[in-house]
Write a structure and sequence with these properties.
Length: 402
C-alpha cells in the first residue's frame, strides 16, 4: 500500500503599517509543465543526488489560491510561474475536474486535497476572494489569534491532522507565526493512500543489490511482480535510452510511472532536464502492454523543503517582499506579504501496506523468458491522474536505505 501525506505551508501573510521556452495552451499541458518545472528547480538545488519527493498538486493549490487574491506584478509573477491564470474559464473548469477527481476516493483508495486560510481575528477579507476560493479550491477560512502563537500552531496542526491523518507529518516548524505582524496563514494538504492494482507478494520480496550514483552497492529489500504492464523504451535527444513502466493503483485512476535509465552510467539529471509537458505525455501514451518481471525496491522518503529558495527560481519574488507584494484582492485593508513557505512530503512504497518485522533469508529468483524491469539503480517516479494527466507527486530514489 502506498501512503502519501503531503502538506504545503505558505506561512504567513503579514500586515505592515507603512517558465520554459515552449508554449502550451491546453490546461492539461500547462499544469504538467508547472509540475515538471518545479521539480527540476528543486532537483538542481539539491544537486541531483539525494532522495526527493514533492507534491506539485499541493504547492500549486496554494499558489493558485494566492493568485486569486494577487494584483499587479505579484499576480503577473504567479501567472508566469504557474503558466496560467486561475481567472481563465477553461483553466477553472480543468482545475475543478482535477480537484474533483483527487477527492474521488473509492474502495481501496483514499485521495484528498484541501486548503485552509487561518486569518487574524478582525481582518476583513474580500467577500469575492472568500467565495471564489471556496468555490474552486475546497477552501475553508478559520479565525485565529497570532498573538498566541502556541495556540495558533496547535490549531493549524490539528487541521493538518484532520486532513491527512498522519502523526509523523502533523508538526510543522512555524518560525514566523509568533511575529506580531502575522495576519494570514495559507495551508494546503494532500493525502493519497492506495493499494496496487496488481499487488506485489510479500513472500516474493528478497534482498537484492542496488547501486547508488556514487557506485556504492547496497543490499535492500526488493519487491517482485510478474504481470502484464504498460511498458516502453525511449531514446532521448542525447541518444541515451530510458525504460518507463506504469504501475496502476486500484481503480486505475492514478498510476505510478517509474523512469529508469537503460545505462547505469546515465545520471538522473539528464532525464530530469528532458522531462516536459511534451515529452512525458508522449512517453506515457506510447506504452504497450508487456508481460514483465518487475523488481522494485521498497522505499520511504521524507522531505522538508524551503519554498522560499525554489519559488524565486521560478520568478516568484514580489510576494515575499513587504514593499512589493500586492494582495489587495485578499484584503484591501492590509498590506500583506508571504514571510515563509514550507513544503513537507512523505512517500512510502511497499507490497501492500505490510510492515516487515523481519527479513527472509530465502532468495526467490523466478526463471522467466519475460523481459525484466529491474530498478536496481537510481530512478525517477511520478504519480499521475489517468484522466486529467495531473501530476500529484514526483520524485527520485537514489538510495533506498536513507
Amino acid at each position: 500500500m502506498l501512503s502519501l501525506p503531503i502538506m504545503t505551508l505558505l506561512l504567513s501573510l503579514c500586515s505592515l503599517n507603512a517558465g520554459g521556452c515552449e508554449h502550451y495552451d491546453d490546461p492539461k499541458d500547462l499544469k504538467t509543465e508547472f509540475a515538471l518545472n518545479l521539480y527540476q528547480r528543486l532537483a538542481e538545488l539539491d544537486d541531483n543526488r539525494t532522495n526527493l519527493v514533492v507534491s506539485p498538486a499541493s504547492i500549486s493549490l496554494s499558489l493558485e489560491l494566492l493568485q486569486a487574491g494577487a494584483q499587479g506584478n505579484t499576480f503577473a509573477q504567479l501567472k508566469h510561474a504557474l503558466g496560467y491564470s486561475i481567472h481563465d474559464q477553461d483553466m477553472q473548469d480543468f482545475l475543478h475536474t482535477v480537484y474533483k477527481e483527487v477527492a474521488n476516493s473509492s474502495q481501496g483508495t483514499i485521495s484528498q486535497l484541501a486548503c485552509a486560510l487561518f486569518v487574524q481575528a478582525g481582518i476583513h477579507l474580500s467577500p469575492w476572494f472568500v467565495q471564489h476560493a471556496a468555490f474552486w479550491a475546497n477552501n475553508t477560512v478559520q479565525q485565529t489569534n497570532f498573538s498566541e502563537p502556541n495556540r495558533t500552531a496547535v490549531q493549524i496542526n490539528e487541521w493538518i491532522a484532520t486532513s491527512i491523518g498522519d502523526e509523523e507529518m502533523n508538526s510543522l516548524p512555524l518560525e514566523t507565526i509568533d511575529s506580531p505582524l502575522s495576519q494570514i496563514a495559507v495551508v494546503s494538504t494532500m493525502y493519497f493512500k492506495s493499494t496496487w492494482q496488481r499487488k506485489f507478494t510479500f513472500t516474493d520480496t528478497q534482498t537484492l543489490s542496488f547501486t547508488t550514483t556514487e557506485g556504492i552497492t547496497l543490499k535492500v529489500p526488493t519487491m517482485y511482480l510478474s504481470a502484464e504492464v504498460n511498458y516502453g523504451e525511449f531514446l532521448m535527444d542525447s541518444l541515451e535510452r530510458i525504460n518507463v513502466v506504469e504501475l496502476p493503483y486500484l481503480g486505475e485512476m492514478v498510476s505510478m510511472f517509474v523512469v529508469l535509465p537503460s545505462d547505469r552510467r546515465t545520471s538522473l539529471d539528464k532525464i530530469e532536464a528532458y522531462l516536459s509537458a511534451r515529452t512525458f505525455p508522449l512517453w506515457s501514451n506510447s506504452l504497450r502492454r508487456t508481460k514483465m518481471d518487475i523488481f522494485l525496491p521498497r522505499f520511504k522518503i521524507h522531505n522538508h523543503l524551503d519554498l522560499k529558495i525554489v519559488l524565486p527560481a521560478l520568478g516568484i519574488t514580489d510576494m515575499f517582499d513587504p514593499t512589493e507584494a500586492d494582495f489587495k484582492g485578499i484584503s484591501e485593508q492590509e498590506s500583506l506579504y508571504v514571510s515563509e513557505a514550507i513544503h513537507k512530503a512523505k512517500i512510502e512504497v511497499s507490497e501492500d501496506g505490510t510492515r516487515a518485522s523481519g527479513t527472509t533469508a530465502m532468495v526467490l529468483l523466478k526463471r522467466s523468458r519475460a523481459p525484466v524491469f529491474k530498478a536496481d539503480r537510481p530512478f525517477n517516479f511520478l504519480l499521475r491522474q489517468a484522466r486529467t494527466g495531473s501530476i500529484l507527486f514526483i520524485g527520485r530514489l537514489t538510495n533506498p536505505t536513507e
